[in-house]
Amino acid sequence: MGLQPGGDPDGLGEDPRLGDVVLDGRVVVFFPEPLRNSYQLEQWLGPLTALHERHGVVVLTQDSRTTAHLRRVTGLPVLCVAWTATMEQLLERSSVAVALYVSHHPRNFQFLRWPEVAHVHLGHGDSDKAVSASNQLKAYDRVFVAGQAGADRVLETLMWFDADRLVHVGRPGLERLPARQRPAGAPVTVLYAPTWEGAQQSMSYGSVQSHGVPLVRSLLAAGYRVVYRPHPRTGANRADVRTADAALRAVFAEEEVAGTGSVVDTGPSAQEAFADADVLVTDVSSLAVEWLSTGRPLVVTVPAESGAVVGPSRLLDAVPRLPADNAASAGDLVRRCLTDDRERDARAALVEHYLGGADPEAALARFLDACDTVIRERDALQARLAPVDR
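Above: the chain's sequence. Below: its structure in C-alpha cell form.
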C-alpha cells in the first residue's frame, strides 16, 4: 500500500522458523535494506559466491521483499531475521567468524554489537561522494577499499582513524569489458547515467532535475543515440526529482526519439550498459570511477545544489565538467571528447589509483585472500580470549 517508509525494511522476518537453524559457514552478510536498495548487494554477488565456495556465506536480511528478490537472483542462502534475539541465537549455534556490510544503514548496528565476530565494511562502489568517508567506518574492524583513492579519502577526512583497518582489494565485481566494437554506420551511443538526489543537501549530486532534459535534447540534436540509465533510487526522496525523471522518460517515448534507438535502460547490469556505450555522462558517483577501466571518454556534471560537498578529487580534475547552465551544449562537449580526447592519458593514470587496477580476476583473488586473513586473525584472537559470560 506504500505506507512503509522508503528507507526502512518491513521487518517481516522468518524468526519463528529459525529456532534450530545452524548457519553453515563462517561468513554472514548483514543487509537490512529495503528492496529498492538491493542493487547495493547485487554488485557483490559474484565475489560473495566465490567466497561461499571457500568459507560458506549466508545473507541475513530484514525485509521480506528484499529476501524474495535475492533468492531469485542468487544461489546464496538468504534468511530474513527481524529480531535481535534470533540473531544472537543463530550466532550461538554457529561458527560465524566475519560479518560483511555493503551499506551504511543505521540497522547495521544491530549486528555490530557482537564482539566475537570480525566486522568488515565493503561499501557498494568507490566514489568521490562525501559519504565514502563517513565517520561510521570507525565502527568496523576492517574497511575494504578498492584503491589508494579510497584509503586517502578516509585518512584525509576522518579524525583518529586507524590506518591499519584499511585493506586494499580492488573492485572484484567489475567485469573485463572488450574493446568497443560499434557496427559500421551505427550512431555513437552516449550513456547518461546520473545518480540519485541523495538523502540530504550535502549528498545532492544528482543531475536529473538540473541537467536532464536539456542535456539529453542536446545529445539527440547532435546525432547521438542516447541511453538514459536512471539510478534505482531516483526520486526516492524528492517529488520534484520524480517529476523530472518522468519528463525525461517522456522524451524517450517520443516517436522521433525512439526511432534513433535511444532508450531508457532500467536493467540490473551497469556493466552491460558500459559495454554498449562510447561515452559516459554521469554525476559524482561510483559509475564515474568504474568507467575509468573502459578507457573511453567521460564527462561528469557539476552539482547544481550549492550545499553538495565536493572535496579534492583527482578524477574530477582530470575530466570535463558540465554545469547545469551548459547542459544544452552537452552535444558539443561530447563531440569534442570524441574527436579530441585530450583527457585519455589522465584517465588511464587513475585506473590504478581508484580501482586498484583493471584486472577483475586479480581483484577477486585479493578480496578472497583478505577475507582469509580476517578469518585467520579473528580465530587466533578469539582463541586467546576468555569466553564471554552472557
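Residues 15-175+359-384 form a domain with the Rossmann fold fold (CATH 3.40.50.11720).
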